[in-house]
Specification:
Layout (H helix, E strand, L loop, with lengths): L16 H53 L5 H12 L1 E4 L13 H14 L6 E5 L2 E10 L2 E8 L7 H42 L13 H51 L3 H26 L7 E4 H12 L6 E4 L3 E5 L1 H18 L5 E7 L3 E8 L33 H12 L2 E6 L5 E8 L5 E2 L1
C-alpha cells in the first residue's frame, strides 16, 4: 500500500506593507546616520583633533626644552606647575620599551605630531601608575633626551564608545520612527481595505476621512465618491424594483379584467386596450433596463447643435403647441444620440405639462461652454422638489400628477445620460411662470461658431 504523500505546508505569507516600510526606513535612517557621522568625523572632528594633537606635541617639546634650559633649582617648581596646569610630567629616565599595543585614536595623531616635531617616529609607551594611566614619549632636551609623560585623563574623549552609543541610539530611534511612519502611511490603506471588504460583502460602504498626505486625500476622495455612487446605485436598485412592481400592477389588473370580460363576450375594444397595456409595460421595462445598464457612453462627434434642436422641434411640434428654436449655428463635439434623447425627454415633459403653450428650445453658446435649454410655461415645480424629481418614479401629485405623467423615469434617464457624458443638468423656475431645464456641456477646444 503506497503511503499517502504529505500535503506541502502552505507558503509563509509575505510581509505586510507596514513591516516592509519599517525595515526599509530603519535601514535608510541607519545608513544616513553613518554617512552623516562619517562626514562629520572626516571634515570636522579629524581636523580639530589633528590641530589639538599638534598643539599638544608642541607643548611637550617646548616643556622639555624649557626644563633643560632652567637652572636646576627652579626645575621642581616648573615640574609642579606643568603637572598642575597641563597634566604633563618630566623625568630623566627613558620611557622604556614600547609595545605594539592599541591606543585610543587621539594618541595615534599625537604620535604623528611628535614625529614631525622631533624628526623620528616613535610609539608612545603606556604605563600604569598609582595616579592612573600615563603615556610617555622621548623628546630632545638640550644635548640629551627627556621623557615627557601625558596623563590619559587629559584626553577625556571616547570616540569609539560615542560611535557605538550613537549607532545604538540611532538604530533604536530609526526603528521607532520607522514604525510610526509606517503605521501612519499604512493606516489609511488598512481603512481602505476594510471599507472595500465591506462593499464586497454587500454592506453599506463607509466614507473615509479625507486627511493626511495629498495622495491619500485624493485616494480617499475618489473612494468616497465611489462609495457614494454605490449607495446611490443600491438606493436606485431598490427604488427601481419597488417602482416596477408597483407600476406593473395597474396594467396587469386591467388585462386580467379584460380577459375575464373576453370569456363572456369577445370585444375588439378590450383587445386594443390590452395591446396598449402591453405596450405601456414594454416601455416601462425598457426604461428600467436603460437605467440598470447605466446607459453606455457614446463617442463624441462634431454635431450641428442648432440643426439638432430644429429636428427635435419638427418631430414634436403640433398645431396646438408650437416649438420655437433660438440657437446660433455652432459645431460641437458631443454624443448626438445621447443629447437627442436627453433633450427629447425634457421636451416631452414640457409638452405633457404645458399643453397649448409654446415651448422654446434655446442654445446659449460661450467660449467655455454650451447651454441647451427647454423652456415651458407650465405649472412649474416648487423649489424644494427641483432635485427630487430626478429620482426614479418620483412624481409630483399637485402639478404633475400621475394621471398626466408618465412612468417617472424620464428625468432619471436624463440625469444618467448627463452623468455618463460629463454634462450638467439643472431645473430652474422660469421668470414669468413655467420651468426651464438646462443641459450644460463644456465646449471642447474645436467648438467654434460657423
Amino acid at each position: 500500500m503506497n503511503p499517502t504523500p504529505a500535503t506541502p505546508a502552505p507558503p509563509d505569507p509575505p510581509p505586510s506593507l507596514a513591516q516592509q516600510n519599517t525595515r526599509l526606513l530603519a535601514v535608510a535612517f541607519v545608513l544616513l546616520e553613518l554617512i552623516v557621522m562619517g562626514l562629520f568625523a572626516f571634515w570636522v572632528v579629524l581636523p580639530l583633533a589633528r590641530r589639538s594633537a599638534d598643539d599638544l606635541a608642541g607643548l611637550m617639546v617646548l616643556s622639555a626644552q624649557t626644563w633643560a634650559e632652567l637652572p636646576p633649582a627652579t626645575r621642581p617648581a616648573f615640574e609642579v606647575e606643568l603637572l598642575k596646569s597641563h597634566a604633563l610630567v618630566l623625568r630623566a629616565d627613558p620611557p622604556g620599551v614600547a609595545r605594539d599595543e592599541w591606543h585610543p585614536p587621539y594618541f595615534y595623531l599625537l604620535e604623528d605630531a611628535l614625529a614631525r616635531r622631533t624628526g623620528h617616529a616613535q610609539h608612545l609607551v603606556r604605563e600604569e601608575l598609582d595616579t592612573g594611566t600615563w603615556y610617555w614619549a622621548s623628546v630632545p632636551a638640550g644635548s640629551g633626551q627627556l621623557s615627557v609623560g601625558l596623563s590619559a585623563s587629559r584626553i577625556d574623549s571616547q570616540p569609539v564608545t560615542a560611535f557605538f552609543v550613537a549607532i545604538f541610539v540611532g538604530f533604536a530611534g530609526a526603528v521607532g520612527i520607522s514604525i510610526w511612519l509606517a503605521r501612519r502611511l499604512t493606516q489609511p490603506l488598512a481603512q481602505l481595505e476594510a471599507a472595500s471588504a465591506l462593499i464586497g460583502q454587500g454592506g453599506m460602504p463607509v466614507l473615509l476621512p479625507e486627511t493626511g498626505p495629498l495622495e491619500m486625500v485624493r485616494l480617499s476622495r475618489r473612494f468616497n465618491a465611489m462609495a457614494q455612487q454605490v449607495r446611490d446605485l443600491l438606493s436606485t436598485r431598490t427604488t427601481l424594483l419597488a417602482g416596477v412592481s408597483h407600476d406593473l400592477r395597474t396594467p396587469l389588473a386591467r388585462m386580467r379584467l379584460a380577459l375575464e370580460m373576453l370569456r363572456d363576450k369577445p370585444d375588439p375594444g378590450l383587445i386594443d386596450r390590452m395591446d396598449r397595456d402591453i405596450e405601456q409595460m414594454n416601455q416601462l421595462i425598457g426604461q428600467v433596463l436603460d437605467l440598470a445598464r447605466g446607459l453606455a457612453h457614446e463617442a463624441s462627434v462634431p454635431t450641428d447643435v442648432a440643426a439638432l434642436l430644429q429636428q427635435l422641434a419638427d418631430e414634436h411640434a403640433s398645431t396646438d403647441t408650437p416649438i420655437l428654436v433660438n440657437c446660433p449655428t455652432v459645431q460641437l463635439a458631443v454624443a448626438p444620440a445621447a443629447l437627442r434623447r436627453a433633450l427629447g425627454n425634457l421636451l416631452q415633459n414640457a409638452l405633457r405639462y404645458a399643453p397649448g403653450q409654446p415651448v422654446e428650445l434655446v442654445g446659449d453658446v460661450s467660449r467655455t461652454r454650451v447651454r441647451l435649454g427647454v423652456l415651458d410655461r407650465g405649472p412649474g415645480i416648487a423649489p424644494e422638489h427641483l432635485d427630487a424629481v430626478f429620482e426614479p418614479f418620483h412624481r409630483l401629485e399637485t402639478s404633475r400628477s400621475r394621471a398626466t405623467g408618465g412612468a417617472g423615469l424620464g428625468l432619471a434617464i436624463v440625469r444618467e445620460l448627463a452623468r455618463v457624458h460629463g454634462w450638467q443638468v439643472q431645473l430652474q423656475a422660469r421668470p414669468g411662470g413655467g420651468l426651464q431645464a438646462w443641459i450644460t456641456i463644456e465646449a471642447p477646444p474645436q467648438a467654434a461658431r460657423v
